[in-house]
Design brief:
five-stranded antiparallel sheet, Immunoglobulin-like, 2 domains, mainly beta, eight-stranded mixed sheet, 51% strand
Length: 253
């Protein structure tokens, strides 16, 4: 983290701030690994994501160019961000310490956040007031020190997923409904197909000669017989899946 104002006289009217990016996080495409456990009727979702926590992990030509310029009176900071096209979303937080107007000699934390960055534009510019304003009258903070700019860079979309017992099974399956192993679980989301396949593992407590796995797509009401394998020793069915769906296990008793 980079601090500003440590060696400046707080009594000076003009405060020049120099800040550097302290932390960058990237959230890239998220893939889900679902482990379905039957018997106790529990479903455990496990999320695997690619997150870059170090600036050095971002290619130089993909790093955003960020500048912070103080106004002549030191009351505002003009933030500018360029080279943003490699990211889907950028958010930032600007925090600093300022004199407490209520208690002499005490510092309080102030700050501002930005979530309005349009990464499709060539440049983002915004003026940030270091203080408060009411009815057009500014009240700049005094004795500003220890400024920190934190940026969060996101690549890819985040989606909500609901996994639940579907109570019954979808109609028109390519199997005898009497052989379906209940409960049946479905994973529901508006997320598109995975860019990488995920491992699906379903575990049972009952015995059977073999199991076959089917998926039901909620969007087009289409059934698919999955290429799956059954392990009699561990009583598990496993398969590779590329989207959220309702997964139905059919046994051969």
């Amino acid at each position: 983290m980079t601090r500003w104002g440590d060696h400046m006289d707080p009594a000076k009217r003009n405060i020049y701030l120099i800040a550097a990016v302290a932390f960058i996080a990237i959230v890239v495409a998220v893939y889900f690994l679902f482990i379905f456990q039957k018997g106790p009727k529990t479903v455990k979702p496990q999320e695997v994501s690619g997150e870059v926590k170090e600036l050095s992990e971002i290619d130089l030509n993909k790093r955003p160019f960020v500048t912070l310029t103080p106004t002549s009176d030191g009351a505002e900071i003009l933030i500018s961000i360029e080279n943003m096209s490699s990211f889907d979303r950028i958010e930032y937080e600007l925090t600093y310490l300022a004199d407490n107007p209520q208690i002499a000699g005490e510092k309080i934390q102030r700050g501002s956040t930005g979530t309005d960055v349009n990464t499709k534009e060539q440049k983002y510019k915004k003026s940030i007031l270091l203080g408060t304003a009411s009815k057009g009258t500014r009240s700049p903070d005094k004795g500003v020190t220890d400024g920190i700019l934190t940026m969060h860079l996101f690549k890819g979309e985040n989606y909500f997923v609901i996994i639940s017992d579907t109570v019954g099974a979808p109609a028109n399956g390519q199997f005898d409904i009497a052989n379906v192993v209940f409960p049946v679980y479905g994973s529901f989301s508006v997320a598109p197909q995975f860019t990488k396949s995920a491992d699906l593992l379903i575990k049972f407590t009952q015995d059977a000669k073999s199991f076959q796995l089917y998926s039901y797509n909620h969007t087009d009401s289409k059934w698919t017989k999955l290429d799956s394998s059954y392990d009699a020793n561990s009583k598990t069915v496993s398969a590779k899946v590329n989207s959220f769906a309702t997964f139905v296990v059919v046994s051969s008793k």
